[in-house]
Amino acid sequence: MATTATIKVKDQDLLASLKAFCVTLLEQENISAILVPQRLPMKSMAMPTLVTAVDQLEGIDPLSPAFPMNGSKVLAKLTRRPSGGKIAAILRPCEIRAFIELVKLKQARTEDVVLIGLDCLGAFRNTDYFHFVGDDAAAATQRFYESVLSGNDAAMDGAELTPACRACEHSIPDSADIALGLWGVDTGTGILAQAQSPAGETLLNQLNLPAAEVPPARKDTLDRLLETRTAYRDQMFADTAAATDSVEKLGSYMANCVNCYNCRVACPVCYCKECVFVTDVFNHDPAQYLRWAQRKGAVKMPTDTVFYHLTRLTHMSTACVGCGQCSNACPNDIPVMELFRLVGQRTQEAFAYEAGKSVEENPPLSEFKEDEFQEVVGL
């Protein structure tokens, strides 16, 4: 039976308890570093930080509603080649799922990392977070998690969870080596810790945490949360499908795109070293633009914006984990995530595939199955 333990919580202070947990992790001989969100000294934003010294753990904030980037991109850089040490990475479920996709795409390795997943309470858009946080980031985080865990995930001080978070069915880290549970747990006294792999079992036993059992309320809480989020997701899909079901509507949907490519940079599973859209293929001759304008009477600039997004959808829809960083990075508030999640859901369903579920499951386009798409091939 997998080890289940509890991280003791004192004075309702989850951040202090998680810091103590990280201190214990760093004291283990087989853990060289921890990758964990930490508030920057000059800003309140929590960014992925690689910590090797116990005295540098001040300000860690894995419960912050700030989500400026998907940490899988950082972890992939740290693990793509042997580093000479093992990293304990504390990540959101969507970050772990993106990392697993990157492993399968040969952009990262699992040998030198222990994945520690934390139940995700959601996040705000970057701009909303800065309005919400005020002068005391730690107090803002406490205000956030107390509100969400009490069942109130509505707007707080004018900030609300992103559509990606409200449509997310993966609020718990099923693919982690160690899962830290908050939903349906009495977080006033403890945080649930469960081993989910042999590596997680070994490390969790090393930590000598008090044994625990999964609270009966956890399943009911997660079932209700899934029901709410699935309903939001399905309505989001219906609205997005209606808004993009023709070439004309899709062009209108993407009309504000300026080809900044922020969504490509922010996407955790977009890994090409050179993108075709920044090569001479799309660096058209000035005379070409004039010919297009003369033929049509007018041409929207910059060009190729819809083609750019269609190309990304073709490349990324089987690997999309729905983290929402594409929309978070868009300077013109285009609902990129909604479209990518819709197409990703349909593509992954067609291949009976779930992005980020298991490193053992091959990406759909990496193998040929004779029994796939019989209705298309006519066999």
Structure description:
There is one protein chain. With 379 residues, the protein is of the alpha/beta class. The chain folds into 2 domains: 4-230, no CATH class; 246-372, no CATH class. The chain is 41% helix and 10% strand. It has 15 helices and 7 strands. It has helices spanning 14-26, 72-79, 93-104, 126-133, 137-149, 163-166, 198-206, 216-243, 247-253, 262-266, 286-296, 305-316, 325-329, 336-350, 374-377, and strands at residues 4-8, 33-39, 46-51, 87-91, 113-118, 178-181, 190-195. It has a 7-stranded mixed beta sheet, with helices on both faces. Strand 2 and strand 3 (46-51) form a beta hairpin. Helix 2 packs across helix 3 and helix 8 (216-243) crosses helix 14. The chain is globular.
Please supply descriptive tags for the structure shown above.
single chain; 41% helix; seven-stranded mixed β-sheet; alpha/beta; 15 helices; 379 residues; 2 domains
Weakly predicted, low-confidence segments: none
Helix run count:
15
What's the N-to-C terminus distance? Answer: 46 Å
Strand-and-helix sequence, N→C?
EHEEHEHEHHHEEHHHHHHHHH
Number of domains in the coordinates? 2
Using the alpha-carbon principal axes, give the shape. globular
Radius of gyration, whole Å: 22 Å
Percent range for helical residues? 40-55%
